[in-house]
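As a warm-up, study this chain.
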Amino acid sequence: MTNSNLLRSSFFLLMLGFSSHFVVAQKGEIESQTYEIVKEKSIEFAPANRVFDKVQPIQGETGKKKVAYEIIDPQINISSPKLTPAVGASSDENSRKDEPDVLNNYVKLGGGNYGRFLGEAFVGGRPSEDLAFTTQLKHLSAANGPVDGKNSANAGTNFKVGGKYIRSKYKVEAGIDYDRKNYYFYGYKPQPEGVEVDRDTIRQTINQFGANLSFENTDASVLVDYSVKTSLSTLRDRYSASELDWGTKLTASVPISETFFALLEADAFVSQRVDQFTYNRNLFRVKPTFKYVTDVFSVSAGVNAVNETDNQLDINKTKAFPAVNLDVSPFTGLHIFAGWNGDIVRNTLKSMLSENQWLGPNVLIVNTEKSAEYSAGVKGETSSGLNYEGKVAYTAYRNFYNFNNSLVDTSRFSIIYDNGKTKVLTISAQAGYNYNDLFKTSLKVNFFDYAVDNVEDAWHRPDLTLNWFNALSISKKLFVTADFYMLRGIKAKNFQTGVVTKLPVIADLNVKIDYLLTRNFSAFVALNNVLGKQYQRYQYYPQQGLNFIGGLSFSF
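Now compare it with the structure written out below.
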């Protein structure tokens, strides 16, 4: 793309970010299904009564307990959860922050085997009823790893600052964050005795910086409801690869009558990725829909129009997809739903590295076209604290991607795309139960069936995943969380030898215990990979066996 074209694209994005004629679209970026047992402290404001609330299919009856449920729809990213979660805050923090004279700020220090070190600090404040801020700094590292000691060490540092300003008619949020990861490509072939690998040749460092700003009206008396969010992120690694990504998202809702609404969603992304070549990649999306709502059902229909460009890959195309959804509630607490949708799913260097950090240099990155997805299911909740959902989805993709060890260097990974039509059948089920905040449990199971077209197989994608999370408050001082993960059906190929390997089933159990010693001090211990299996999520990269970290936390 020429400089003039890039300037025109940037100017268009700037105008989009401050215009009320466009709106934010659905999540365009493929999101990882990583499940971290990390409960961050935050300062909560009472939810505003927004116009968007009017388009919900069922209004809860006043006075009845609302039991929240959340089902994450399976995306094309069928990656593993975070199998060795970082040590998070105490599981009781969200409940304790509502108590009188609560201590929300803390400093945490800990250590464990593999030379682990944890340092974390959180400071939040509320200078006034309208203003709140949070600041968090965290460092977690391991001096040694599962292969050749320090050659598989890792370290991560994250810094976040955020703030909210809420008035009766609008809400403003802003934040910045910095993330640095340092690790090593330890998936190399075993070396002869006495031969050492030069650590400098296998080291990777990724620096990411992000900033975001959002504005949202919270005045229910305003006819047009809207919100806008703009964010800028940068990424740079140790091998001169970089990415700049600027996105603006907006949403708007206009009631035509008490039961009929006009909705508009749109977003725009301008990005530049520099590697062996310079890729100027843009994506613009507009999604107008109409929604009809009654006490028994809601139906929405519209079109999702997407334009994407890439100067280096000579891509400039616009496509339209259906956006049709139906929700029927025969009685309170039960929903039967169905949908027919399509989209262009953004793939970026940042999103790919979040799935697989072992990527080699100059990997090919293109967007994935979700040509059509047909889905149906049922979800519900009861006043006793039980919620559930079952869903079946059949999706057709183009440029469906997977990861596999590179032909040139098997310790690095390439991204392989199916440029034909890939069909994926997904069957998912989830259930959760809360008992007076004393016990919480949730179980989710996903089954995947892949029918690839122009590639050999869906490498490194599991055909079955299971996530089971539990939190138990034994007393006012003792809290226990446990999570279990299982992945099955992962296959990999060594393109140098032609050998196809079916990786063993991954089963991972993690337990964390927090004990409140005094009002200010608490002790914690986290046991990760309790089963002690050095499983491989990605071929040639065994994970740490049983590992632990323990320490003290001071609250103030």
